[in-house]
Amino acid sequence: MKGIINSIDDINGLINAIKGIINAINGIVNAIEGIINVIINTIKGIINAINAIINAIKGIINSINDIINEIKGIINPINGIINAIKGIIDSISCIFNAINGIFNATNGIINSINGIINSINFIFNATNGIVNSINGINNSIYGINNLRQFMPFLRPLTME
User: Which of 95, 76, 75 shows the shortest CA–CA distance to 87?
Assistant: First the structure.
């Protein structure tokens, strides 16, 4: 009997050992399931965080677009004012160009008048030169006549 009891005890020990192994396997399976749940929940949390980041970025982009639109709303009237000022400057430039044209035309008239005056002065100087040449000829004739009076051999050179 002792052999059977030992055998039953051994079988019970084996059964208990198998139960322990099964419990250990169940514990490992439960631990793996827990790890899988933690991983899944972590991934879900990461995905939710990424979605929150994406939504925040979308909100930032929308806010930036709103700011850009507001700036455009400010810039458009400023552009209108700048264009108006450019138009005024262009008009003033046209006025100055017209005034400059008047000055240039007036300068042309004055230069033409100066040209006429210079031509008259040239004619006067040329006439004066002719008169001076005639006077020079007269003076030469007078000098010859005077010389003839003092030098009788020159008398045949005079025109009388």
Answer: 95
